[in-house]
Specification:
single chain, 4-stranded antiparallel sheet, 2 domains, 3-stranded antiparallel sheet, alpha+beta
């Protein structure tokens, strides 16, 4: 196993960790802003299942990165004295790196797909999610998909007159009840 491949693999693992870190920071920042409303006593919907999924993926990614770091250090220590062992460590490192990439992609997909419904607050007849701020009067329709996979919130765009935008969120009966209890379900 070539030492350059291991070093480049470690650099790529670090780049993947940085990219995931940027997504985590972005999600954390928007959640922190919405949690400020919780301190004011405003109604907030939190999808705890998504939080747990994202947290579990993040922990797995961190564990694989730490394991890859340890294997990289072990490889650098034994590469000259134990050539056969260093090959095995190199192959294990490559497998860990590939698994880390799979979990990183899963984290990015889950966080982007479910970012709208991760946490939703209501303040002054306004629905606030991590990506949109929707006034109650601008909502034209809230509907669900045929198989209850998504909730669609159609609303008038503030910037372009006559333009209807759609916010698509993962369906959850708790979210539907939350919107219904706060008078947003039409």
């Amino acid at each position: 196993m070539n030492s350059g491949m291991i070093i480049s693999g470690f650099v790529l693992a670090t780049v993947v960790a940085i990219i995931v870190g940027l997504f985590v920071f972005s999600t954390y920042r928007s959640i922190k802003q919405i949690y400020a409303f919780k301190k004011q006593g405003l109604p907030i919907f939190e999808d705890k299942k998504v939080f747990k999924t994202l947290l579990a993926l993040l922990i797995v990614i961190c564990l694989f990165y730490i394991a890859a770091l340890i294997l990289f250090i072990v490889y650098e220590c034994i590469k000259d004295s134990h050539e056969d062992a260093s090959k095995i460590v190199g192959y294990i490192f490559e497998c860990l790196f590939l698994i880390e990439i799979v979990f990183a992609i899963a984290y990015i997909l889950v966080s982007q797909k479910q970012a709208n419904a991760l946490i939703i607050a209501i303040k002054n007849n306004t629905l606030i999610s991590s990506s949109d701020i929707i006034d109650r009067n601008s909502i034209t329709k809230i509907s669900e998909s045929n198989h209850r996979k998504y909730l669609y919130i159609d609303y008038r765009d503030k910037e372009i007159t006559g333009n209807i935008k759609r916010m698509k969120v993962i369906y959850s009966w708790q979210l539907k009840d939350f919107l219904n209890d706060n008078g947003f379900w039409k």
